[in-house]
């Protein structure tokens, strides 16, 4: 493997952080500690981590309603994320946004988005800004298979292609848009096939293989940074849990779920790290334990944090002069 | 001071903002060599060709890309060819631009101007003639302005570009070729400040955009009837300058609100509500009257089209009725 051990273990750790953060989120919801909804990223960890591993800290991402994984992979603070889920003033969005709206401008994260495809034109605009300024930043736009059927997808990919913008459109095809199976509602077999309509490269990757994702995204990011235009990448993956907190998953079988769980991206990556002698079992176990501690600390921080004050309800509607 | 056309004053503001701030640029359909559907950017190309990003017909992504560019520090101006076409971009105006700051706890800001021609009077019928500012003024997080004069369009446009919030900037098409005094160089008309366009003591007309011009014309004619009309131009719907309105109503005791939008659920209802909830209520000596567009899609036939929105004679008639004159 050409990546450094440090980078590979960083990838492993980020994936474990996402997995444990999501399991904790689910646990807290079941304890009635989370007020609104959330969309768990369990099973898709390799997509976010492989993609963000190919970005510079100053590069931008836009995220989706299923955004915890992207947010962690881009480097957001677990404490502030957990505080946001609990609606606390110390959260990334001061408790105003909740799960679906976490942004962290300090890590180049322009926001999760409660609207399917909401981030696609926004990413396109961030990339346009980079092109106009010549700042050499790349924007990576996460979206799902459902978003690929919106009008904004067509508009934005066309615009990015005619202007040769430094943007990577990264589709996480997790097989279902809520209950809608991708093959029932998408006329092409692969979403990446649509790249042909925009005269840009379309790449399909195993979204459960973090190194394959990394490689494809790195190539696209390098092209974008050199001014060679956008790429559409489709990562085929699977969400283990339901669409959101209240989904009994009547639209798919438990057998299908079990098949995908055999392709657990974290387990696969761990096995690879071990078999290639990059890390020992003890090293990986140590990371797992470190992360468990971080998650516990994040939870404690969130629980102990104050709620926003009702007097501040109307704060942040408008930017005041000089802010 | 030089007399200029509204469209010239606007173009001057755009060019001056291009020169002032490297982060300012404009996106829109046919705004390059063609000069925009109404000619606002006519002649700017090729000098400003790097500032004029011509787009495909993709309103949602034009506005959405404007939002994205604004988030990372640019100050985009988006031209939507007809404000009716903003309906295609509502998602990125209402769910994104207006809310990103709030829902990220103040982390993000969206310094975006969406400017668009509105209104009837050109025979373009129902899908190219609406006046919809009230629809946007209802959304927290947006600012909404609709300058009526060449002076105001230049100063308000500069204020809009320099504002850190999304500003929806409505230009009534019939105003483009009206004239007025415009100073040379840089000046700002603050967003959220109404303007007393004509002082009077007998009645307050509250108007905006094209209805300001019509109300001023009506006021001149009503002078002959012995009625001294004060005309207030709201200029900005969001935020709305309640104070200037209330002070005028306290002085005159009578109110006519004239809006070009269709009347039901229009912005005039909000103005009326602010008056009756204020100290001015005790000074009213006649029920507040509203004159708005008819609740119909704008028709094609010129006689019908004219009848669909308040004209000068409608304003005169409404004022006379308040004073018991036929």
TrEMBL record, chain A:
Under the heading Gene3D superfamilies, the entry gives: 3.40.50.970
What terms describe the molecular function in GO for this protein?
A: pyruvate dehydrogenase (acetyl-transferring) activity
Instruction: Name any cofactors this protein relies on.
Output: thiamine diphosphate
Q: Where is the Dehydrogenase E1 component domain?
A: 14-310
One Pfam match: E1_dh
- What chemistry does it catalyse, as a reaction equation? N(6)-[(R)-lipoyl]-L-lysyl-[protein] + pyruvate + H(+) = N(6)-[(R)-S(8)-acetyldihydrolipoyl]-L-lysyl-[protein] + CO2
Q: Does the keyword Oxidoreductase apply?
A: yes
One Gene Ontology term from the biological process aspect of the record: pyruvate decarboxylation to acetyl-CoA
Report keywords, A-Z. Answer: Oxidoreductase, Pyruvate, Thiamine pyrophosphate
For this UniProt entry, which residues form the secretion signal?
none
Q: Supply the SUPFAM superfamilies for this chain.
A: Thiamin diphosphate-binding fold (THDP-binding)
What this chain does, per the entry, is described as:
The pyruvate dehydrogenase complex catalyzes the overall conversion of pyruvate to acetyl-CoA and CO(2).
The name this protein goes by in its record: Pyruvate dehydrogenase E1 component subunit alpha
Q: What is the lineage of its organism?
A: Bacteria, Bacillati, Bacillota, Clostridia, Thermoanaerobacterales
Query: Gene encoding this chain?
Result: pdhA
TrEMBL record, chain B:
Superkingdom, taxonomy of origin: Bacteria
The terms under GO molecular function for this entry are: oxidoreductase activity
Q: Which cofactor does it need?
A: thiamine diphosphate
Q: Which InterPro entries does the record cross-reference, listed alphabetically?
A: THDP-binding (IPR029061), Transketo_C/PFOR_II (IPR009014), Transketolase-like_Pyr-bd (IPR005475), Transketolase_C (IPR033248)
Q: Does the record bear Oxidoreductase in its keywords? A: yes
Outline the extent of the Transketolase-like pyrimidine-binding domain: 4-178
Q: What keywords sit in the KW lines?
A: Oxidoreductase, Pyruvate, Thiamine pyrophosphate
Pfam family name, one: Transketolase_C
Q: Do the record's keywords include Transport?
A: no
Q: What is this protein called?
A: Alpha-ketoacid dehydrogenase subunit beta
**Organism source for this protein?**
Caldanaerobacter subterraneus
